[in-house]
From TrEMBL:
One of its GO terms (molecular function) is L-threonylcarbamoyladenylate synthase. PANTHER family: SUA5 (PTHR17490), THREONYLCARBAMOYL-AMP SYNTHASE (PTHR17490:SF16). Gene3D superfamilies: DHBP synthase, Threonylcarbamoyl-AMP synthase, C-terminal domain. SUPFAM superfamilies: YrdC/RibB (SSF55821). The keyword ATP-binding applies. This is Threonylcarbamoyl-AMP synthase.
Length: 346
């Protein structure tokens, strides 16, 4: 069943979806970050279905979505005031907090860890759905494992139609990048996944916060602390090459690579910014956004990768530069999508 909630929420329909969710079915729903594939987080069998539908490795834990502080306290221990400090500023919103888990959360939600990642989404449909279901909702991104995360209902339909009970269409996601995951289960606050809440904002709230440096390195150097960060991710069908450097140098290099590949008969896509787009002659050119607007670029990234799949290109050449700290989450997704296939031009 597909529920159209793009214009307004029909509470009759949403109640039906909530009932299905509570009873152990799978419901894909919009959040402000990406679409989630939800199951009742209290039912082991329901949670198992998520792993099957997505083809997700069993050792990758799920985020539990909640709609109230009571639900938070039911699912996790609150070790200290840092948690309330963060949620006061950033919930509901795109921040996931990893905390010691409580008994009611089955092991398959947390992949056997004694911690659980929790977030209260700000998307109205998501919040209302969880409220109506009356239970915490375990939900990874609603894509087949390894594919770009879904930022429109159409992406969920492409990946999961026939494998889930309900898909709720809430239009385009406003952030388009997943939530920031932060670990507060130990004394030192640590960012496990960069995401929609920029590092700079978290630093304002918790001064001693750091991020896992392996996030921006190839996974050869170190093993990331969030289990999910180690997997192949966001992969488009084409081979992706990130060309990183100063603007004129990278444009020159991209043109050179494009020419070589095209001479060899390949179909080459270009992922660029508004400001640089006129430098590239191509019918397979997609503009990510303005290079001065990390939010716009973040919002468009995953749908751009999916569009390249539809265009059927063999290669995607993507540009990148030295940008501010707010761009780190986006850079992380690009690097992962390219399997760390980066050419740096100096
Ligand atoms: O924005 C989002 O976070 C979206 C929407 C649907 O909320 N969800 C999402 O879920 O991106 P998923 O499963 O695709 O990514 C969850 C990430 C993974 O990297 C996972 O390893 C990490 O969070 N994670 C979850 N629970 C954890 C835990 N207890 N300890 C460490 N990492 C955890
Ligand atoms: Mg995911």
């Amino acid at each position: 069943m597909i529920i159209d909630a793009k214009e307004k929420i029909d509470y009759n329909e949403l109640s039906k979806a909530a009932q299905i969710l509570r009873d152990g079915g799978l419901v894909a729903f919009p959040t402000e970050t990406v679409y989630g594939l939800g199951a009742n987080a209290l039912l082991r069998e329901a949670v198992d279905k998520i792993f099957v539908a997505k083809g997700r490795p069993q050792d990758n834990p799920l985020i539990v979505h909640i709609s109230s502080i009571e639900m938070l306290e039911m699912c996790a221990e609150i070790p200290d005031k840092r948690v309330y400090k963060l949620i006061e500023r950033l919930w509901p919103g795109p921040l996931t907090i990893v905390l010691p888990k409580k008994e009611c959360i089955p092991d398959n939600v947390t992949a056997g860890l004694d911690t659980v990642g929790i977030r209260m989404p700000s998307n109205k449909i998501a919040l209302e759905l969880i409220k109506l279901a009356g239970v915490p909702v375990a939900a990874p991104s609603a894509n087949v494992s390894g594919k770009p995360s879904p930022t429109e209902a159409q992406h969920v339909i492409e990946d999961l139609f026939g494998k889930v009970d309900v898909i709720i269409d809430g239009g385009k996601c406003s952030f388009g990048l997943e939530s920031t995951v932060i670990d507060l289960s130990t004394s030192k606050p640590y960012i496990l996944r960069l995401g929609a809440v920029p590092f700079s904002i978290l630093k304002e709230i918790l001064e001693d916060i750091e991020y896992d440096p392996s996030i921006l390195a190839g996974n050869i150097l170190s093993v990331p602390k969030a289990p999910g960060m180690k997997y192949k991710h966001y992969a488009p069908d084409a081979k992706m090459i990130v060309v990183k450097g100063k603007i004129h140098k990278r444009i020159e290099k991209m043109k050179e690579i494009k020419k070589d590949l095209e001479t060899n008969g390949h179909k080459v896509g270009i992922l660029c910014f508004y400001e640089t787009a006129q430098n590239f002659e191509s019918q397979y050119k997609i503009i990510l956004g303005s290079m001065f607007d990390y939010k716009e670029c973040g919002k468009n990234l995953f749908s751009a990768l999916r569009r390249f799949n539809h265009l059927g290109v063999d290669y995607i050449i993507c540009e990148w530069g030295e940008f501010g700290i707010e761009y780190l989450a986006l850079e992380n997704r690009l690097l992962k999508a390219s399997a760390y296939n980066v050419i740096e031009v100096l």
